[in-house]
Amino acid sequence: MAEPLLTVESIRYQYGRETVLDGVSLYACAGECVGIAGINGSGKSTLLSILAGVRRPAYGTISCDGHMLLKEKGQFAKLIGYVPQGNPLLEDLSVADNLKLWSGTVPDESLEVIRTLELTPLFKRRAGKLSGGQKRRLTIACALLGGQKVLIMDEPTSALDIGQKEIIHRYIKDFTAQNGVVIMATHDIMEMDFCDRLYHLDEHVLVEARTDQVVRKLRKEND
């Protein structure tokens, strides 16, 4: 097996007295897409926010490309792009100004991430006027304009139509084909299927599983 680009070991997180994550570990090599499934409230979003540096765990380590991220906090933003479940965009600003704000650089319409996500024709449009899928694509571009190697995504295509999903799925495959890493929480069976590895978050820990196993568990947990 190739050396992992991202390694997460023994992550523990508590909210008050409630344990949310208890010894969570995972890894991802360059070029891999890793899926995380679980019922609502299982801790998926909490885990992703920890991997993105938004929350700090009580215990555990996160290493990426040779950096111990919990000890080198400045490396989170350099190495990891984060697409949360909610909308982080400033809707009164244009697409171009959102890209500039989140990346800290003047965006170039010819950049591959912008072209692949089909944002060039939208550059002057106000973010608040975009469709849900266009906002999601813009958020992905904002997360990656700094050349980040890892993309963390929380339910990347939830509530989007098939056409918008296809654009994002195509970009995920392009990103991993260029040795990027994608970690995403998902309930989408199609997304689970194209993941190189799939985990189920259950009872505060991650367990590696196949898509059919995860679907059965989710159905049982929701009964």
Count of strand segments = 10
The run of helices and strands is: EEEHEEHEHHHEHEHEEH
Remind me, CATH topology?
A: Rossmann fold
Which architecture does the CATH hierarchy give at level 2?
3-Layer(aba) Sandwich
Give helix % range. 25-40%
Question: Briefly, what is this?
Answer:
The chain is α/β, with parallel strands linked by helices and about 220 residues long.
Summarize this structure as a short list of keywords or feature phrases:
about 220 residues, alpha/beta, Rossmann fold, 6-stranded mixed sheet, 4-stranded antiparallel sheet, 8 helices
Written overview of the protein:
The protein has 223 residues and is of the alpha/beta class. It has a single domain, classed as Rossmann fold (3-Layer(aba) Sandwich), CATH 3.40.50. 34% of the residues lie in helices and 27% in strands. The protein is built from eight helices and ten strands. It has a six-stranded mixed beta sheet, sandwiched between helices. It has a four-stranded antiparallel beta sheet with strand order 2-1-4-5, with helices on one face. A hairpin with a 2-residue loop joins strand 1 (4-15) and strand 2 (18-29). Helix 3 (95-103) packs parallel to helix 5 (132-144) and helix 5 runs parallel beside helix 6 (162-177). It is globular, with a radius of gyration of 17 Å. The model has no long low-confidence stretch (mean pLDDT 92).
